Amino acid sequence: STPYSLMGLLAKKAMIPEGMPPPSQRDLLKLFFAASRLQGEDRWGDLKVFHEQQLGLWALRGEHFNEDFDDCHSKVVVPLDAQEPMSIAQHEHLAGALGVEALFYALVDADGEVVLYELRPAPLFLPPDQRPLSEPAFHPPERLAAIASSDKSIDNGSATQTSTRSGLSRKQRRHLAHRSNEAKRSSGRSAAAVLTDQVGKSACPESGGPAEGQKRPKQQ
Question: Which of 35, 128, 138, 182 gives 14 a disulfide partner, CB atoms 3.0 to 4.6 angstroms apart?
Fold first, then answer.
């Protein structure tokens, strides 16, 4: 198609202000495919072509409805092809020059298919003193770093103890087990001696013999 016929096709999809210089063939194609995509969506309407001379930019402006169709805002759609890179810095400069926070981009491929996406600032949290109580408590970065360091120290201590025990040789482990068994037997003998002494004292409270009315236990 010639540029003039393309202008006519574009004019059926978006309003073109009078007296505007004709865009190049490449810009016309991008505008046409982008406008065709937007025209096919219910949430877009009242499309207009505009030219930003200082930026050398051809773009579309239209009314964009939210998902509930109870509110709409004027949005800018910038057509791009696959050979046009757009960095975050370029996007922020373009948005600032146009006086908007968010921009839609219509990525047009070689077959005229359009992928539409939006770039906008990430939502920021409210200041800590203005957040509702239902949200997690705020901790400054230095506090979080201290907590992480403390947890790491505890983990390292546990790992060191485990490593120390597991690093013993078989002979050393056998020796420790023997000492533990000896300690248990010694503790058992001590407990038996204390019990015998208590029985003897209750049987012979003062003289060492059996109490009155009691018989001396037979020797085994």
Answer: 35
